[in-house]
Design brief:
The complex is a heterodimer of chains A (117) and B (225). With 117 residues, chain A is α+β, with helices and mostly antiparallel strands. Chain A is built from two helices and six strands; from the N terminus they run αβαβββββ. Chain A has one domain (3-114): hypothetical protein PF0899 fold (2-Layer Sandwich). In chain A, α1 (3-20) packs across α2. Chain B has a single domain, classed as Rossmann fold, CATH 3.40.50.300. Chain B has eight helices and eight strands, in the order βαβαβαβαββααβαβα. Classes of the chains: A alpha+beta (117), B alpha/beta (225). Chain A binds chain B through residues 1-2, 5-6, 9-10, 12-13, 17-18, 21, 23, 31, 36-38, 84-88, 94-96, 104-114, and chain B through 1-13, 89-91, 121-122, 125-126, 147, 150-151, 154, 180, 182-187. β6 (105-114) of chain A pairs antiparallel with β1 of chain B.
Chain lengths: 117, 225
């Protein structure tokens, strides 16, 4: 259900990157979604369609790559793959961890046509 | 043309949140983001907590889709209150907090309670600049909610299990809830509290005052020395 909120922030960022680079029409957008963010691709696509209406990204295609999660135990420094509901270190059996990967949503690329000089 | 970037999608919100955090620090108050599903007792908790904290003073920002009912309930006991109506948005954004801060006497206050929109998902994604996240889970919601909404509990500094007086009449496996929380976050504090009977209120007030002392008291002492 949080895809819509994220899509609203995403479109602002896309427009800002496009403007900085004189892109007047966005054709494609690439994002990485961390596993721990629980983004459902189909829901994200629908939210994206809603927020691009009337913008320079109106016809843009959204490419989503999911990144798996990686956590590191603060106590024994063991690195492991956590589950959404389980961050217990396999060695210490304690959830005192920092997440290294998979806890972000990142805009990776904006592809489009530049303004003609 | 392909422009390669590496930008966190929520960076714009996070940057505003960082500035809010600086404002709180300069004003010498601690900000708490109260997150829960609707009806878990956030406003009732504030009605009981704010008078009990006196002479320490509290400000409140309340987020709701509609109405100013929650703000009306706490305005008697709080130093000042701002109600934000979010319309169709199911959470608060950091910039809404920034806009509210100009209406509040920050330097006179010790605590800022931000009562987020009732929702266990989206408020967890949007940093408001708070110092601490307090997640409320009321006993009638059931003992499966930590496992169902793990992300929000992973981010918590404190989990308050509210309406604990109902433990005597409802089935609620407390051991299961505490185990589920321990699987997510070993550093979170957990308190059981009832605004009806007052059970757990002293522990909650102590937790707040300890956090205030740790965050503000230490700095105040540092600056006067």
């Amino acid at each position: 259900m949080h895809e819509m909120s994220i899509a609203e922030s995403l479109i602002e960022q896309i427009i800002s990157v496009a403007k900085e680079n004189s892109i007047v029409c966005v054709d494609e957008v690439e994002i990485e979604t961390g596993y721990l963010k629980q983004i459902i691709p189909d829901v994200m696509q629908e939210a994206f369609k809603a927020v691009i209406k009337g913008t320079i990204a109106e016809n843009a295609v959204l490419k989503i790559t999911e990144i798996s999660a990686l956590a590191k135990c603060n106590l024994c420094k063991e690195e492991f793959t956590p589950e959404l509901d389980n961050f217990l270190c396999p060695k210490c059996i304690k959830a005192d961890v920092v997440t290294l990967k998979g806890d972000d949503i990142i805009l990776k690329a904006v592809i489009g046509k530049e303004e003609k000089p | 043309m392909k422009v390669k970037v590496v930008k966190r999608v929520l960076d714009a919100n996070n940057e505003i949140a960082r500035k809010n955090r600086e404002i709180f620090q300069k004003a010498g108050l601690i900000a708490l983001n109260l997150i829960s599903s609707p009806g878990s007792g956030k406003t009732t908790l504030l009605e009981e907590t704010i008078p009990a904290l006196k002479p320490q003073k509290s400000l409140v920002i309340v987020g709701d889709l509609q109405t100013a009912r929650d703000a009306e309930r706490v305005q008697e006991c709080a130093l000042d209150v701002v109600q934000i109506n979010t319309g169709m948005s199911c959470h608060l954004y950091a910039n809404q907090i920034t806009e509210s801060l100009s209406d509040l006497p920050l330097k006179e206050a010790d605590y800022l309670f931000i009562e987020n929109v009732g929702n266990m998902v989206c408020p967890g994604e949007f940093d408001l600049g708070e110092n601490l996240k307090v997640i409320l889970l009321s006993i009638p919601e059931g003992d499966d909610k930590v496992a169902k909404y793990p992300t929000i509990f992973r981010a918590a500094d404190l989990v308050l299990l509210t309406k604990s007086d109902l433990l005597s009449v409802l089935k609620f496996d407390m051991v299961r809830v505490k185990e589920d929380i321990a699987r997510l976050n070993a550093n979170v504090s957990i308190l059981e509290i009832s605004c009806q009977t007052g059970e757990g209120m002293a522990d909650w007030l102590k937790w707040l005052k300890d956090c205030h002392q740790k965050d503000i008291g230490a700095k105040a002492k540092f600056f006067t020395e």
